[in-house]
Amino acid sequence: MAQVQRMSQLMIKTLRDDPADAETLSHKLLVRAGYVRRTSAGIWSWLPLGKRVLDNISRIVREEMDAIGAQEVLLPALLPKEPYQESGRWEEYGDLLFRLQDRKGADYLLGPTHEEIFTLVVKDQCTSYKDLPVMLYQIQTKYRDEARPRSGVLRGREFQMKDSYSFDVSDEGLEESYRLHREAYQKIFARLGLDYRIVSAVSGAMGGSASEEFLAPAAAGEDTFADCPHCDYAANTEAVTFALTPAEGEHGAVEELDTPDTPTIETLAEHLGVPAAATLKNLLVKVDGEIVAVGVPGNREVDLGKLGEHLAPAEVELVTAEDFVGREDLVRGYVGPQGLEKVRYLADPRVAPGTAWITGANKEGKHAKNVVAGRDFEVDEYVDVVVVEEGDPCPQCGTGLVLDRAIEIGHIFQLGRKYADTFQLDVLGKEGKPVRVTMGSYGIGVSRAVAALAEQSADGQGLCWPREVAPAEVHVVAAGKALQTELALEVGERLGAAGLRVLVDDRAGVSPGVKFTDAELIGVPTILVAGRRSAEGIVELKDRRTGEREELTVEEAVGRLTA
Ligand code: ATP
Ligand code: MG
Question: Which Gene3D superfamilies match (predicted)?
Fold first, then answer.
């Protein structure tokens, strides 16, 4: 796109109405303002203005990646099956992977992320410790057959990602590469003008900073993160843990209660007049065909996604009526852990040793009270799988956590030797012996960042870009006929000559009203209007964000904008 782009020559068709299928603000506005068009579900075409924004983001990402010494490469998106089969991801990815075959019937995939291929490239290129550390990156199209490709470019099935990979001989080296990426990401997102938080993406139990996400708070976000209002703790709710604290105190013997027709926690709590939190809910699931029970307080929900992650790569399903056939030990609706000898029992840390519960008595219509963890039943494994709720205690300081919605825009990850082990990636060490390489992987959703920025900066009138990513820095509007158009073009040329990226609305036969509406919708941060006082050489300068406007001479306006 030229430095000075005339709208009369720009392919753009803005829309007055929101597209019918759009749910999120960024989706609606990016379509209405003519940045993107849907080609198929989760597959998007980038039109001139959208491509500009995408390129601006890519440029910033490139500059900051180059600044930490990462080298840009471009690997294929069309990949052979074998490396993904060796790593296990050909199976693990399941339906998320786009798979295809060539004319000979050989299997291929469209790359969802490239750890395997980068490992092989480095194995081919680097043989000595002297060749390391090395950091490689690419900005490339990725493919994932997402289950719910909604929200426009926020979650595409085809999307742009910057992915980078670090290769080091030592753990300290990996930590340094990780730190460099973390800092580069902070610079990138600051330059993009994104409001973001760095949150822990792994549970505390798995250790520190091995994986962090960069989240952009926004209502349209599909991630929820927990934020401590008191200390520096912030984590994806998928990673929040609850401390296991054994309880003290005496409890009477187990007592059976008559509780007819109370197969659910709600009916039970009402029948007994106790809070749901006093009851123990035992959820039964099938893990690779075997029945497993998960105990959580009756007022809490089990997050099946978290449970699945915890038990991965096993397949987790809910039990059905059929699974109870022939299982006298499992009384549907009245299960209690004190009678579950043949079933593996997982529990939330709130079901700590010494806590007493009202739970199923393993008999139809009966429950039991004073059922004490560690005394009347054993927990095989404690797992953090309840849905985190607002007010849950901060794992670091105990203050009630606040929950917020956000968009994951980046993810940094200390992989360690997982892929190096798979592909035997060794280099010759200082002592002449082979050393196994350790890796990190780091992603930024470049196309998703466009949507995240749109979400965070838009208002009732339309988009509103930060200057560095905007498709132009100044939008000059000719609000009138020949005279105004002449002045607008002249000012546009002067600004362009001074190095600014300018959009000039010189369209003939389009009313000033429509031009103003379009300018607000397109969201260039500064709008300059050549209007009623053009004959006197006076223009109006308007800040898209604040709406502040000022009349200035052309000289003053040009001086101000090029200062
Ligand atoms: P999500 O949880 O949103 O599906 P992810 O954790 O699977 O994302 P990563 O594998 O960490 O994603 O990919 C790196 C980055 O690529 C993400 O942080 C995100 O910004 C971006 N990204 C991932 N999936 C998509 C998608 N379907 N559309 C657009 N961007 C995506
Ligand atoms: Mg991620």
Answer: Anticodon-binding domain, Bira Bifunctional Protein, Domain 2
Residue 288, pLDDT score: 87
- Does the Cβ of 447 fall within 6 Å of ligand 1? yes
- From ligand 2's centre to the CA of 467, what distance in Å? 28
Does the Cβ of 471 fall within 6 Å of ligand 1?
Answer: no
What pLDDT does residue 206 have? 44
Of ligand 1's listed atoms, the one at least distance from the Cα of 410 is 18
What pLDDT is recorded for position 2?
A: 64
CATH superfamily of 255-382: YbaK/aminoacyl-tRNA synthetase-associated domain (3.90.960.10)
Ligand 1, atom nearest to 443 Cα = 14
The predicted-structure confidence for 44-61, as pLDDT tens digits, reads as follows 999 999 999 999 999 999
Q: Minimum-distance ligand to the CA of 194?
A: 1
Q: What gap in Å lies between CA 399 and CA 230, rounded to an integer?
A: 7
- Domain ranges (residues) in the chain: 4-10+465-562, 34-240+403-455, 255-382
Assign domain 4-10+465-562 one CATH number from 3.40.50.300, 3.40.630.30, 3.40.50.800, 2.40.30.10: 3.40.50.800
- CA–CA separation, 301 and 317 (whole Å): 16
- Per-residue pLDDT tens for 265-314? 999 999 999 999 999 999 999 998 899 999 999 999 999 888 988 887 78
- Reference 166, options 409, 448, 408, 417; nearest CA is 417
What per-residue confidence (pLDDT) applies to 328? 83
Q: pTM for the full model?
A: 0.90
In this structure, the number of other CB atoms found within 10 A of the CB of residue 42 comes to 21
The CB of 411 under 6 Å from ligand 1? The reply is yes
Residue nearest to atom 3 of ligand 1 (CA): 408
Q: Is the CB of 445 under 6 A from ligand 1?
A: yes
Annotate 256-287 with b (16+ C-beta within 10 A) or e (fewer). eeebeebeebeebbeebeeebebbbbbbbbbb
Could you tell me the end-to-end alpha-carbon distance of the chain, in angstroms, rounded to an integer? 24
Distance 201 CA to ligand 2 centre (A): 8
